[in-house]
Design brief:
Elements: E1 2-4, E2 10-15, E3 37-42, E4 48-53, E5 61-68, E6 74-80, E7 91-94, E8 101-102, H1 107-113, E9 119-123, E10 128-133, E11 138-143, E12 149-154, E13 158-163, E14 168-172, E15 176-177, E16 180-181
Antiparallel strand pairs: 1-2, 2-3, 3-4, 5-6, 6-7, 7-8, 9-10, 10-11, 11-12, 13-14, 15-16
Length: about 190
């Protein structure tokens, strides 16, 4: 995933660290030697500003999705490619010039997410962060200030998440978008326009 800072000066990049090749479809070729990272680049020059590699114990934690809070804090979400019985941190945050800080989610929340966060979004007005997991069939709302869980919902095939007028909006693979259903199938990549 990639996004741009509010002032347009930085590119914020989540490098998942998973190698694929067209000859092998979507087969993951390097799970034993992944190097996921979070990177800040100067938008004009392309110069590296900051790079965070995952710690060795979390080298199979694929950094996948990003959003930025109004204070410039960068939120990220991950998918675990390691042992299925592990319970790694699946989301975190950092700011320019700071180290990454993983969220300490309750164990039952981490289990519910199924080691896979498919999307993350910040609702700046309400001070909330939304996470979804199609694997776990879950949508989780966090307090953006504290990182604490505010709400957990069961949402079968939860895919995308975006800020809503109040709280977060969740899309699903089978055409649901909050309380409505259509013949349009959504994936994880939704954004609020306007």
């Amino acid at each position: 995933d990639m996004t741009v800072s509010d002032d347009g000066s930085m590119l914020v990049i989540a490098n998942g660290g998973i190698e694929t090749h067209p000859d092998f479809g979507r087969t993951k070729l390097n799970l034993d030697r992944m190097e996921p990272s979070l990177v800040l680049l100067d938008a004009k020059s392309g110069a590296l500003i900051q790079k965070h590699l995952m710690p060795p114990a979390l080298s199979q934690l694929s950094t996948r999705h990003l959003d930025i809070a109004d204070n410039g804090q960068i939120w990220f979400a991950c998918q675990w490619e390691g042992a299925r019985n592990a319970l790694p941190p699946l989301a975190g945050r950092f700011s320019k010039g700071e180290d990454i800080a993983f969220l300490d989610l309750p164990e039952q929340t981490t289990v519910r997410l199924g080691n896979y966060v498919g999307a993350i979004a910040v609702n700046r007005r309400d001070g909330l962060v939304g996470l979804t997991s199609p694997v776990g069939g879950a949508a989780v709302t966090l307090d953006a200030r504290t990182g604490k869980v505010m709400r957990e919902e069961t949402v079968r095939e939860a895919a995308g998440v975006a800020p809503a007028a109040h709280g977060i909006a969740v899309s699903t693979y089978d055409g649901r978008f909050n309380e409505t259903k259509s013949r349009i199938a959504w994936d994880q990549h939704i954004v609020r326009i306007g």
